[in-house]
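Project outcomes to date are best conveyed with an example. Our students and postdoctoral researchers have been running inverse folding experiments weekly, and each run begins with a structure described purely in tokens. The record below, which covers 477 residues, was selected by the lab manager from last quarter's runs and is presented without edits.
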């Protein structure tokens, strides 16, 4: 059966899985060579015991990279090459996706589409040079609702060659968990309610693996804060009491600096903030999530030390990042335009869809765990014909039509896109993203230059939705 990738079949991919450890053992000349510096990390995906909730709750049994969640922070300079050796210590297949990094297709980490899945006890080597500086993240893309939902994710920081001057550069990885009274993961990842409604939203929120942590700060210092929404389905709306963060990047791509009363991040989205610590020694300020208005909660607390201010007035240094280096899409009659219809879910209008090449009615779809469709197809793993094929260098315009009663966060692999319009209106500022949040019944238009050859995923990053059908592939030749 075809995987949608020219010349590559599911059987050949499965046969290739046995060769994955041999690939990992090859000398570097057998892989892409690089004359530049290489940062190498090792990631072991394995069960681990991690304390998410404070005592008296016991540690939680999770799946982690390097024994912690989030996993090791992978930090390198723009122009360096990243090499990651993944070891699978789980009892099931796994793979790693480098979210937002415009990697070569064979490094994208999608089982049965770009690589063989990594067998238990085996290794796989990922190696690439990130073309963009920025804040990105990595996570399992095999059985993703379960593996990411149990803790398999971490953050990638690609530092600019000439970064803005700050006193500290910090990462916040936001996540949520569905825990029972013993602080253990509730094993209901196949819940039909999660599949067909808002996705798997937990009852415990963590920041860098801890509930309601304190961030020690000093009056007068300037902090760059890289915020990542690593949750399966939760949307965050952060308000920094007593402070006014300035946004300098979204999804790893620079924006003209701006301020807003709150920061909203849907699953998989990121934001880089610059915050001048304007409080006084000894003061405390909460960071509150207000997206679910009936249940606001404290995400963290800015705790000022008793030290005298580092400086009496804000740091006088520019914070704007270098402009986006992405190719600008040309919107004209030569653009390849496609309506991407998102259907399904509870209260939806989906009545039939294709699964694995055969059209099925709604009752059969539900029995098969499929509640959503993209362009009339309920995605089944990665065995899907591409919904659009673009020649390399051509502008692609996608009209994302959310015809459901639920929000979705649509992510494109291998490419970042410009937001052209939302609700029929142009955005107030030029914004590039790799994940866009669509409200119920919303229409959003995005555009990008198809400059990265291969077969790529487009899917909802509310992962229960993706695995219940809201995923598709597109091809760049």
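After processing, the design step wrote out the following sequence:
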């Amino acid at each position: 059966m075809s995987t949608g990738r020219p010349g590559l079949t599911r059987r050949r991919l499965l046969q290739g899985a046995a060769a994955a450890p041999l690939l990992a053992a090859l000398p570097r000349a057998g892989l892409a060579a690089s004359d530049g510096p290489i940062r190498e990390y090792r990631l072991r995906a394995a069960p681990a015991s991690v304390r998410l909730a404070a005592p008296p709750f016991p540690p939680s049994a999770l799946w982690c990279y390097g024994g912690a969640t989030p996993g090791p922070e992978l930090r390198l300079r723009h122009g360096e090459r990243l090499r990651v050796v993944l070891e699978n210590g789980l009892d099931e297949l796994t793979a790693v996706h480098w979210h937002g990094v415009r990697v070569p297709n064979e490094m994208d980490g999608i089982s049965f589409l770009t690589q063989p899945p990594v067998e238990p006890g085996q290794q796989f080597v990922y190696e690439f040079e990130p073309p963009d500086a920025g804040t990105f993240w990595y996570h399992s893309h095999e059985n993703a609702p379960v593996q990411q939902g149990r803790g398999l994710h971490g953050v990638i920081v690609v530092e600019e060659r000439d970064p803005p001057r700050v006193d500290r550069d910090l990462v916040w990885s936001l996540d949520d968990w569905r825990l029972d009274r013993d602080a253990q993961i509730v094993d209901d990842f196949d819940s039909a309610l999660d599949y067909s409604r808002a996705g798997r939203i937990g009852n415990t929120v963590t920041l860098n693996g801890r509930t309601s942590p304190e961030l020690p700060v000093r009056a007068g210092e300037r902090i760059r804060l890289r915020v990542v929404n690593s949750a399966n389905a939760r949307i965050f709306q952060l308000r920094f009491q007593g402070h006014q963060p300035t946004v300098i990047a979204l999804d790893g791509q620079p924006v003209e600096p701006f301020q807003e009363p709150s920061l909203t991040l849907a699953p998989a989205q990121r934001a880089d903030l610059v915050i001048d610590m304007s409080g006084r020694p000894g003061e405390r300020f909460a960071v509150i999530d207000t997206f679910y208005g009936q249940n606001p909660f404290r995400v963290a607390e800015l705790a000022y030390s008793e030290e005298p201010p580092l400086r009496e007035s804000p740091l006088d240094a520019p914070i704007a990042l270098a402009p986006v280096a992405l190719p600008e899409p040309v919107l004209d009659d030569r653009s390849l335009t496609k309506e991407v219809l998102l259907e399904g879910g509870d209260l939806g209008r989906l009545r039939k869809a294709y699964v694995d090449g055969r059209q099925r009615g709604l009752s059969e779809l539900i029995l098969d765990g499929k509640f959503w469709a993209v362009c009339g197809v309920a995605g089944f793993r990665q065995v899907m014909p591409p919904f659009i094929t673009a020649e390399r260098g051509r502008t692609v315009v996608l009209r994302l039509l959310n015809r459901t009663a639920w929000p979705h966060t649509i992510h494109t692999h291998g490419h970042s896109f410009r937001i052209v319009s939302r609700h029929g209106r142009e955005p107030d500022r030029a914004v590039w993203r790799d994940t866009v949040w669509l409200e119920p019944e919303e229409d959003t238009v995005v555009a990008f230059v198809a400059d990265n050859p291969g077969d790529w995923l487009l899917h909802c990053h509310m992962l229960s939705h993706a695995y219940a059908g809201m995923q598709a592939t597109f091809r760049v030749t």
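Residues 10-17 form the longest helix (8 residues). DSSP finds six helices and 32 strands in the chain. The training component of this project remains on track.
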